Each structure stands twice: as structure tokens, then as C-alpha cells.
Amino acid sequence: MTDTATRDTSAAAPPPKRSYAKMAADESREDYSLRYAPHSFRRWSPTMVASTALGGIAYLADFAIGASIVFTYGFTSGLASILCAATIIFVTGIPIARACAKYGLDMDLVTRGAGFGYFGSTLTSLIYASFTFIFFALEGSIMAQAMHQAVGLPVEVGYLITTLIVIPIVFRGMGALAKVQAWTQPIWLIGMVLPFVVLAFEAPDAWGAFGSFGGTEGAGSGFSWLSFGLGTGVALSLIAQIGEQADYLRFMPAKTEQNKRRWNLAVLAAGPGWVIIGAAKQLGGAFLAFVALEAVGKTHALEPIAPQIEALKPWLGSFALPAAALFVIVSQVKINVTNAYSGSLSWSNFFSRITHKHPGRVWYIFLNLAIALTLMEMNMFAALNKLLGFYSNVGIAWIAAVAADLVINKRMGWSPPYIEFKRAYLYAVNPAGFGSMVIASVVSILAFFGLFGEYAEAFSTFIAAGLAVVLCPLIAWATKGKYYLARPNPVNGPHVDVPDVTATHACSVCETAYELPDIADCPVQSGPICSLCCSLDAECGDVCRTSPSSEPVLMPMPTMPAMPAMPTTSAARDD
Predict the structure, then answer these.
(1) Degrees (nearest 5) of the Cα angle 205, 209, 211?
(2) Confidence at 495, pLDDT banded by 50, 70, 90
(3) Chain-centre distance for alpha carbon 188
(4) What is the 3-state secondary structure (H, E, C) of 493-516?
(5) CB within 8 Å of 476: residues ≥ 6 apart
(6) What's the CA gap between 480 and 241, in Å, rounded?
(7) Averaged over 242-266, what is the pLDDT?
(8) Helices (H), 302-360
(9) Rounded to the nearest 5°, which phi and psi values hold at 172?
(10) What's the rounded mean pLDDT across residues 418-431?
């Protein structure tokens, strides 16, 4: 948020105040993009949050990815690749989804406290941002192909339209996204199911023939370890999707005795559960492409619009084209509003730490879309397998390191039992998560480019995951968890009686009230400071972390009975 204050360091000067740019100060658009999501803002039910999050996985890139894997490596190896990748994504997604929903934090803030440190997670912000614009470009390409098929619109013009159409929706934030996902869900469900219903009646033997399909590159219908490894690498490019799910899950209401069953199911379904639908879509997309292969040729079979049309023709005839185009356009709008929204969050997190400025989340929408549009115009769709295979090595190293911290390090006591995301309490870089991710990424990328032989090349993503999972706990153990906290959190750390976390404190810089988990004690301000004002301060010199610890400066609060949603044990409480 734009810092309009000029710091006066003279002893007699009052503490500087900060005012925010209009866009950044409007939380109905900002959606607490760089902050903890307060309980007062989490007004949606678990079911509503889950429904909105799952609406974002309507994308058809799964169709293209599944078809590309099976066409390249054959049905048997392709099926094994898709199922293996889905299992890895599901397992690593469980602890991340629960942490984001429990603590009201997005993926970047969880990463900070899960072994990466305050500046260490800037690299993962770039990784996540690249995921959003790569997949925005992929989805936009599919939408442009549909418009070209339907009305003859040049794909270059289609790229521009697919980019511009999402801006008004993403500009308005979570509320608008929730409405769009709800309103378009019936159309999407009908369009998703109908082609398979038609083929079940019109081509009942197609599934049997698909099971013996050897691909279009001569891979053969049998199982190959090399094909399995390479195919899994492509499918694992979707592992960072958990970040987009987390952008919704942070608005999950507090878990209570009354809603815990629905809460657990919603978090599981909307978090790692997306990949169950995703894997089914990959296989379904490959099947539709296989059925359409003879009629449209390989190139068009890999474009989801053509197989949709071919599948619907027996029942809809001349209406198959507009019906398929409508389905594709609706699907791509549903996912690309999520891609653009999540991209704006990741860019906001990145630039706020680098520049100490934040004009508002909405301005970064344009940066993300500009990069995505450039990729579309460069025809990235033609290099799908190579691009996604390369990205997988970095994405899985990041996600695996975070999951290892949440599952292993916290249980072993090498990492704080809660997620500390505020600059005032974090080291700049934590070698446990950051170091393990960098090492795993470098080694796996070298393997990906063939430095260690063809099997290491095929299984480079497994190398990335294995190294990250092993190195993160190993480094945390070797450093005795030293680099997780630069100083203890004196008020809402793990060893303090749980106060009412919904009680608010006025930030001494921006003079806005925030709930306790978003507040730190600041010796420079001699009072409480919100997490964002703390991030944007460019001149404090991090004295709170570099000077001897001082007594907390937050006003004392009476300890309140714990809310039903807030566990009263220090090891399990919400920060």
C-alpha cells in the first residue's frame, strides 16, 4: 500500500503515520492480500468456500495435459503417470490446505513461516506467479481456439479478448469470484458430463480401444519406466495449484465443535481434493482426444474444443459447435479469474518486500495478464510438455519442502508449532525450507537436462521431491530450528496464554484496527504495528530483530475464554 509518509528520525518528532492509496485501503477489493484474513472477514460457510474453490478447477488444461501425456507415452504409461502425480499432489496438499484454512493465510504467508523466512519466500512468490501466468496463457489459448472455431475470430485477437474479459471480475475480489463460480457451475457441469454420456451410447467400444492405445509417437501400449517418469513430470506441473486453492481456503470460517465435520470435509475437498477431479479430467480429456483423433488429426485433437465438438455431433448435430464453444469459454473464464486473482496476490507479496511499496493488489492484475498475453502470442501451447516438465522440478521442490516442514519439522519440535508470518519475528532467510528447495531444484533441473543420464532425466521431479522432503528436516535438525524465529513472539506466540484473537488493536502507523494475529510489537513505534505496515517500513533497520529483546509494547489484554474455534493448548492454537 502506498506509503505517503516521510520518516522523521528526530527524537522530538511524533511517530510517522502512513495512509494507504484508495485501491489498497478498500478490503472489498484487496481481500487482505498481504495479510492474515481476520475472522470478521471470513463470513462464508465451509460449503460456500469449498464450492468457490472447486469452481476454479473448471479449466480444460487438464484435458490438454492428459491428451498430450497419453498421445506421447501411450495409455498404460500415461495412466500410471497421471495416477502417480495425483497421489503425490494429494498427499502434499493435505497439510498445506489445513494450515491455510486454520491460520487464515495464503500460500506465501504459510511458506514464510514454514521454513523459508521473510525474504526467502520472495523466490517462491515468483514461482507461484509464474504458475498463474503460465496456466493463464494455456487456458487463454484454449479459449481463443474455441472462439476461432466458433466464429472464425483470429486467435491473436482471441488472446486479447480472453485477457481483457477477466479484469472486471478479478478487480472486485473474492465476492465477485464467488458469484461467478456459483452462477456458471450448472453450465459447466452439463458441458463436462454430456460428451461422455453421448459417447457411452454412440461409441460404447471406444474405452476398450483406448486401453490399448500406444500413442502417436511410437511409445507402444505397454508400460515403460522412462515414459512413466517423463509423463509424471508433466502431470506434476499442476502441483502448485494448491496455492490457488489456498487463496480461497484462507477465508474458511473458524473450526468449531458444531461445524468441524463440515469444515474438515470442505478443507479436504477444496484443498487436495481438487486433484481427484483433475486426474479424472486428464483421463477424460485423453479419451475424448483419442476418439476424435482420426476425424480431426493430432494437432486439433490436443485442442479441447475439437474433441468436444466431435463427441457432441451425434446428438446435437450443427449445434455441437456453439454448445462446445460455450462450455469451453465458461470453463476458461472460471479458471482464469482464479489465475489472475492468485497472480495479483503473489506479485503483491513479491513487490511489497522488494520495494516496500504497495499500491494495491488490483494493479498487479495488469502485470500478470501482460506476461500471460505475451506467452499466448508466442504460442506457448506448442511447447506444452517441455515447458510444464521443466516447471515441475521447481514447483514440486517448493511444495514438498513446505509439506515436510508442516508434517515433520513441527511434530519433531524443530519448527514452531504455529505459523509465524510477520517480518518482525522472522529471519530474512531460513535455510531449512529455502535451502532444501534451492538444492533440490538445481539438482533436479540438471537431471532434467540429461546431465545424469536418461533415467535421472525421466525421474527428475522425483529427485526434486525426494531431496526436498529429506533435506528440509535434516537442515532444521542440524540448525536446531534456530532460523525459524528471530525473536520470540511475546503476545501471540506458542508459549503464551491464549487471548481472544478476535480482539483488535490499532496499528500505531496506519491507525487501523486489526485482529491480534496480524499485529506485532514494534520498539521503533513504541506500540503495536500491523503486519503490512511492518513489511513496508524501509528505514527501521529491523532493530526489533537485531537488538536485544525488549518487553512487549502491546497494551495488555485480559485473557478471554477461548473461542470454540481456537484450541487452548499452546501447541495447537491459531496464531
Answers:
(1) 120
(2) very low
(3) 22
(4) CCCCCCCCCCCEEECCCCCCEEEH
(5) 115, 405, 409, 412, 414, 415, 432, 484
(6) 32
(7) 91
(8) 305-316, 320-355
(9) -90, -10
(10) 93
